[in-house]
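4.2 Preliminary Data

To establish feasibility before requesting continued support, the project team ran the inverse folding procedure on a target of 312 residues. The structure was first converted into the token representation described in Section 3, and no sequence information of any kind was made available to the design step. The complete token record follows.
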């Protein structure tokens, strides 16, 4: 379950999925300490079965909440067994004591977005000078202080602005931070500012297919896992299907009428509704004959997020 902890952010990313004005100080009241804690209490009431399910802390930038560590402390007190993950720009982790304090609450995974292979390219997308250097310091601290069972995941959003640099980003990460758990390549969502700026950031599946294929084939290995988020299966060659994960929420994705004839529909995430509205549906064509055999994830929980273990 996503818990939006804070509406404000210390970056101004050109493809932020939050709408314009979301991060204004005047909109922060729903994210006060008391209101976030009350939302955490509500989870128990509306989802009493939530005991073993993960929480993902999001924002804005969750770590920039003035009482972030108090919130995590209370989250842990209320939900001692649940996995806790966080989606972050990584900048607050440049402070060693903050990093140590957060890690002590035993988060399972920290997901940090990197947008460029150097400061100029990254900061052009975050629109905050110095953000790259601070994020890199954050990554170093997380790796220095985390426990072996805690994961650091790097996320790269595929944008018109950085597509030609993504290979360099992965190369840089694999050299500088070989201990990261994985790199996730994310197809952008055209929501919020990403929708407004789609002429600068937007890509379509057809144009990036070959690029994605080259990146996965080049970088996925025993040493570095590569995952793909937000990709319908027909947007990729079958050899890449085992790298796809279904992470978008119900309601954010849909199936087309013609998907009903697709023999691989049960393994597909569908199509993001905003993409259909902004770009259209002509790229998505049902696969009407079986071309490969699928080895499914057997566990129901795993199947939901990662239905294809392998292809034969
Ligand atoms: S046609 Fe529909 S169900 Fe089949 S792979 Fe494409 S989006 Fe998925």
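Position-by-position output of the design step:
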């Amino acid at each position: 379950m996503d818990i939006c902890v804070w509406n404000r952010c210390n970056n101004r990313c050109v493809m932020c999925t939050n709408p314009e004005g979301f991060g204004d100080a005047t909109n922060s009241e729903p994210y006060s300490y008391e209101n976030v804690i009350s939302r955490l209490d509500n989870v128990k009431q509306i989802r009493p079965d939530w005991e073993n399910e993960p929480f993902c802390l999001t924002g804005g930038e969750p770590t920039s909440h003035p009482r972030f560590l108090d919130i995590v402390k209370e989250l842990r007190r209320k939900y001692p067994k649940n996995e806790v993950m966080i989606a972050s720009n990584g900048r607050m982790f440049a402070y060693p004591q903050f990093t140590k304090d957060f890690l002590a609450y035993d988060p399972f995974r920290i997901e940090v977005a990197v947008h460029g292979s150097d400061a100029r390219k990254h900061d052009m997308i975050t629109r905050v000078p110095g953000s790259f250097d601070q994020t890199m310091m954050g990554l170093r601290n997380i790796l220095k202080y985390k426990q072996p069972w805690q994961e650091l995941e790097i996320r790269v959003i595929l944008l018109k602005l950085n597509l030609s640099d993504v290979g360099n980003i992965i190369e840089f990460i694999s050299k500088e931070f070989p201990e990261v758990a994985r790199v996730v390549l994310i197809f952008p969502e055209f929501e919020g500012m990403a929708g407004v700026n789609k002429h600068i950031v937007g890509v379509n599946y057809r144009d990036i297919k070959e690029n994605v294929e080259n990146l996965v084939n080049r970088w996925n290995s025993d040493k570095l896992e590569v995952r793909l988020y937000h990709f319908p299966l027909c947007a990729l060659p079958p050899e890449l299907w085992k790298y796809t994960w279904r992470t978008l929420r119900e309601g954010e994705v849909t199936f087309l009428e013609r998907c009903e004839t697709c023999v691989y529909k049960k393994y597909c995430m569908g199509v993001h509704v905003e993409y259909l509205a902004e770009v259209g549906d002509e790229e998505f064509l049902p696969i009407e004959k079986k071309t490969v055999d699928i080895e499914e994830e057997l566990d129901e929980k795993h199947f939901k997020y990662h239905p294809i273990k392998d292809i034969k």
